[in-house]
Amino acid sequence: MDLFAVAINAVFMQTYIGGVSCPYICSRRLDHGVLLVGYGSAGYAPVRMKEKPYWIIKNSWGEKWGENGFYKICRGRNVCGVDSMVSTVAAVQTSTQ
Question: Signal sequence: where (predicted)?
Answer without folding.
Answer: none
